[in-house]
Amino acid sequence: MEAINNYIKGHFADSIEVKNKILSDTGLIELIQKVALETTKAYKNSNKTLLAGNGGSAADAQHIAGEFVSKFYFDRPGVSSIALTTDTSILTAIGNDYGYDKLFSRQVQAQGTKGDVFIGISTSGNSTNIIEALKICKEKGIISVGLTGKSGGKMADLCDYCIKVPSDCTPRIQESHILIGHIICAIVEEELFGKGFKCL
């Protein structure tokens, strides 16, 4: 039992360590702020967010989109946000007709407009279907944000903003991704509809 208890504590300690690294990195904190303000600007210009990821990152994309469309801390009008991971007919059609690598780029091409914000989530930074979507973002003038692990992978050179979580461990990276997503949602909500940051 002691071994299991230590194992549990180790997971918490590892997660806290990664978050402390982010907390002490001024550049990373400023980058998260920039992304939040760019997203706010997009919404003020009647644009939207598009989000995508694979596996657990797909769940994060859906989670963040849900916070935008419904609410985060308080009741307010919903803002437009689309998780490109949810429509089984679209996903299977693209997968069947064009291949899995085009899963998100086809949707960005069809549904994205200049000034939108695309958030691509990949712990490795090397997910091919996210990379293909980022290429379309460049073509269409869509602001691109990457949430990745420490290296940033191939996404680092393709994103307008690449937020690299300082870890190589997939679960630790994902835990930080959703926290960063929550922070962005909270800032956008406050900037658009709030009267000062209250809930911390």
Automatic annotation (TrEMBL):
<keyword id="KW-0963">Cytoplasm</keyword>
<feature type="binding site">
    <location>
        <begin position="54"/>
        <end position="56"/>
    </location>
    <ligand>
        <name>substrate</name>
    </ligand>
</feature>
<protein>
    <recommendedName>
        <fullName>Phosphoheptose isomerase</fullName>
        <ecNumber>5.3.1.28</ecNumber>
    </recommendedName>
</protein>
<dbReference type="InterPro" id="IPR001347">
    <property type="entry name" value="SIS_dom"/>
</dbReference>
<feature type="binding site">
    <location>
        <position position="182"/>
    </location>
    <ligand>
        <name>Zn(2+)</name>
    </ligand>
</feature>
<feature type="binding site">
    <location>
        <begin position="96"/>
        <end position="97"/>
    </location>
    <ligand>
        <name>substrate</name>
    </ligand>
</feature>
<dbReference type="Pfam" id="PF13580">
    <property type="entry name" value="SIS_2"/>
</dbReference>
<feature type="binding site">
    <location>
        <begin position="122"/>
        <end position="124"/>
    </location>
    <ligand>
        <name>substrate</name>
    </ligand>
</feature>
<feature type="domain" description="SIS">
    <location>
        <begin position="39"/>
        <end position="198"/>
    </location>
</feature>
<dbReference type="InterPro" id="IPR046348">
    <property type="entry name" value="SIS_dom_sf"/>
</dbReference>
<feature type="binding site">
    <location>
        <position position="174"/>
    </location>
    <ligand>
        <name>substrate</name>
    </ligand>
</feature>
<feature type="binding site">
    <location>
        <position position="174"/>
    </location>
    <ligand>
        <name>Zn(2+)</name>
    </ligand>
</feature>
<feature type="binding site">
    <location>
        <position position="67"/>
    </location>
    <ligand>
        <name>Zn(2+)</name>
    </ligand>
</feature>
<feature type="binding site">
    <location>
        <position position="63"/>
    </location>
    <ligand>
        <name>Zn(2+)</name>
    </ligand>
</feature>
<keyword id="KW-0479">Metal-binding</keyword>
<dbReference type="InterPro" id="IPR050099">
    <property type="entry name" value="SIS_GmhA/DiaA_subfam"/>
</dbReference>
<comment type="function">
    <text>Catalyzes the isomerization of sedoheptulose 7-phosphate in D-glycero-D-manno-heptose 7-phosphate.</text>
</comment>
<comment type="pathway">
    <text>Carbohydrate biosynthesis; D-glycero-D-manno-heptose 7-phosphate biosynthesis; D-glycero-alpha-D-manno-heptose 7-phosphate and D-glycero-beta-D-manno-heptose 7-phosphate from sedoheptulose 7-phosphate: step 1/1.</text>
</comment>
<keyword id="KW-0862">Zinc</keyword>
<comment type="similarity">
    <text>Belongs to the SIS family. GmhA subfamily.</text>
</comment>
<dbReference type="InterPro" id="IPR035461">
    <property type="entry name" value="GmhA/DiaA"/>
</dbReference>
<dbReference type="InterPro" id="IPR004515">
    <property type="entry name" value="Phosphoheptose_Isoase"/>
</dbReference>
<keyword id="KW-0413">Isomerase</keyword>
<dbReference type="GO" id="GO:0016853">
    <property type="term" value="F:isomerase activity"/>
</dbReference>
<feature type="binding site">
    <location>
        <position position="127"/>
    </location>
    <ligand>
        <name>substrate</name>
    </ligand>
</feature>
<keyword id="KW-0119">Carbohydrate metabolism</keyword>
<feature type="binding site">
    <location>
        <position position="67"/>
    </location>
    <ligand>
        <name>substrate</name>
    </ligand>
</feature>
